[in-house]
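Try this one yourself first.
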């Protein structure tokens, strides 16, 4: 299985297979519903190759992977036996969290279909606007069928995907979608002569257009999942094969037609009307608000909440003005990310920024957000401001799109027509404004050798070789549960302070010392592994609590022979324990070979 090692490490870092209620994925993230979120080891997760970042939001753990997420999920599904798992315990989730979990899980698998069809629809509309093809021609009619089929019968796609999320029968879910779009319903709507059907003479079934809608079928499948389990539970086993699907389809279908469907239609219209109301007040204000919300929504994983609204707009009015704003937000995120290329020094950082910016241009912004902008808060602010400016601009000129497409630079041809020039100008504004704001707001890491106050240099604590923290023979330190840093293998046993600061903690067993640096960073120096059992034997200390120290201050002397006799690893570990104050470790020094005390080891960039 591809990525098996990485996925196995993820499962271990989230508390094991037994801690997983459910798992799914969207375009860039693996998403988990867990029994106990306290078992999540975020530091271990973010250390796994392929993991861009992590986020816990709306009662779900999100592990950001990028565009290869489907490959990881395929392996994850096999390792977790997802097809055999019980449905997630949605009863414990609030309505908002349940809705967000469902929307994100439903649309991930079907995005390729709606994005592909949307691109064709947008390009066709552009060709018609340029008078290159007639809307009456057979060519247009056939291509329009190809592009519109997905949107017309979108409830079928949503039903199949939602059934996987709620762990219920996919074909019964599709049957309910078929009920909503049965010709009797669509013909009654087209004729305008029938407003409702009366079932049993008293149950009203309102006539609605369910084509292109998503909210009614999502809640219908949720209802089906409960009814199916309830029916299957109360029926004798001998009757389940025939009567469980029969009763489930009848009860859930009838409930959908009478109650859930109409409520879903009204809820979808309410969301769309709310956006329309915002535009009616001021298109510029709408652009500012949506543009400002979009980057933080992507960061928190709530951006899928806009998808049903956009799809409802397509169903109601044939076009949407939200998706162009999503496009502007992606370009603004890309611009702010690109600006960081001028601010960093290490080749590794520059490589990450370039790849993240390219990914942003292609419509995938998670690498830029999690890999770059979360480290530079002012750059994230620049992306937000740039998104608002560009969104307000295109909203003022009424830029709209006629089909669902990914917000990628390659989507630009879909805007061909009367709004094309404004879409292009919006992209330029988004990229340019966010780049400029980030460039002026974020200081360089280092200029002419002068270190800024948001940096702290950790120096070698002894004479000897550098050891990457991941290679330390202690899972607590190597997984970075305590914090990030480095380790060294000493030749003399002398231990010096890695920073200037104050001794705040000396452990009674003498094997560990805590130092608070002058800028508030908290450093733990742990001498040896599992040396607490020596009860101080083999350690001589030269400092006391409250004492001020510098990088020239000798803290302790280790009896290396005593540790060897006790079969203890003598690695000296240096970690930053208050990682909430750390933006990143720069990794700019070449640490190969042997070092002397005071040699630069690691530069810590503070938030």
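Now uncover the answer:
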């Amino acid at each position: 299985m591809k990525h098996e090692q990485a996925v196995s490490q993820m499962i271990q870092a989230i508390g094991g297979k037994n801690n997983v209620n459910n798992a799914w994925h969207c375009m860039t993230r693996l998403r988990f519903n867990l029994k106990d979120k306290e078992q999540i080891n975020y530091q271990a997760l973010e250390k796994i190759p392929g993991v861009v970042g992590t986020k816990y939001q709306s009662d779900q753990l999100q592990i950001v992977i990028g565009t290869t997420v489907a490959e990881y999920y395929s392996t994850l599904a096999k390792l977790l036996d997802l097809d055999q798992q019980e449905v997630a315990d949605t009863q414990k989730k609030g309505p908002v969290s349940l809705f967000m979990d469902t929307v994100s899980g439903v649309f991930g698998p079907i995005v390729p279909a709606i994005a592909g069809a949307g691109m064709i629809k947008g390009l066709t509309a552009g060709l018609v606007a340029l008078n290159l093809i007639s809307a009456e021609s057979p060519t247009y009619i056939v291509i329009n069928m190809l592009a519109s089929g997905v949107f017309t019968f979108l409830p079928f796609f949503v039903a199949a995907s939602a059934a996987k999320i709620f762990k219920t029968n996919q074909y019964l879910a599709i049957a309910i979608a078929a009920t909503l779009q049965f010709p009797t319903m669509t013909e009654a709507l087209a004729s305008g002569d029938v407003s409702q059907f009366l079932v049993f003479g008293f149950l009203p079934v309102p006539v609605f257009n369910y084509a292109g809608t998503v909210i009614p079928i999502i809640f219908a499948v949720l209802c089906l999942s409960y009814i199916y389990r309830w029916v299957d539970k109360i029926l004798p086993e001998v009757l389940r094969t025939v009567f469980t699907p029969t009763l489930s389809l009848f009860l859930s279908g009838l409930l959908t037609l009478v109650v859930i469907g109409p409520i879903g239609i009204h809820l979808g219209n309410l969301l769309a009307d709310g956006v329309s109301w915002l535009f009616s007040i001021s298109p510029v204000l709408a652009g500012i608000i949506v543009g400002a919300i979009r980057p933080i929504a992507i960061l928190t994983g709530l951006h899928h909440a806009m998808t049903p609204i956009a799809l409802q707009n397509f169903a109601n009015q044939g076009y949407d003005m939200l998706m162009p704003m999503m496009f502007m937000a992606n370009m603004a995120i890309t611009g702010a990310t690109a600006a960081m290329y001028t601010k960093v020094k290490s080749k590794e950082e520059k490589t990450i920024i370039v790849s993240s910016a390219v990914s942003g241009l292609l419509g995938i912004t998670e690498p830029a957000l999690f890999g770059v902008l979360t480290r530079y808060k002012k750059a994230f602010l620049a992306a937000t401001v740039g998104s608002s400016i560009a969104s307000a601009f295109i909203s003022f000129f009424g830029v709209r799109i006629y089909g669902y497409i990914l917000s990628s630079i390659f989507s630009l041809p879909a805007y061909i027509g009367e709004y094309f020039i404004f879409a292009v100008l919006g992209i330029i504004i988004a990229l340019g404004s966010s780049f400029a704001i980030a460039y002026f707001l974020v200081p360089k890491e280092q200029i002419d050798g002068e270190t800024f106050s948001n940096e702290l240099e950790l120096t070698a604590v002894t004479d000897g070789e550098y050891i990457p923290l991941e290679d330390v023979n202690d899972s607590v330190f190597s997984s970075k549960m305590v914090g990030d840093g480095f380790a060294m293998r000493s030749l003399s046993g002398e231990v010096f302070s890695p920073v200037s600061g104050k001794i705040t903690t000396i452990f009674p067993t003498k094997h560990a010392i805590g130092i608070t640096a002058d800028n508030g960073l908290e450093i733990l120096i742990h001498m040896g592994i599992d040396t607490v059992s020596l009860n101080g034997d083999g350690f001589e200390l030269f400092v006391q609590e409250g004492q001020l120290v510098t990088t020239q201050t000798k803290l302790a002397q280790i009896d290396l022979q005593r540790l060897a006799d006790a079969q203890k690893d003598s690695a000296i570990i240096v970690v930053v324990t208050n990682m909430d104050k750390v933006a990143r470790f720069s990794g700019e020094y070449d640490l190969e070979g042997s070092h002397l005390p005071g040699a630069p080891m690691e530069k810590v960039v503070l938030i």
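Discussion: Confidence is low (pLDDT under 50) at residues 84-92, 446-452. The first helix runs from residue 4 to 13.
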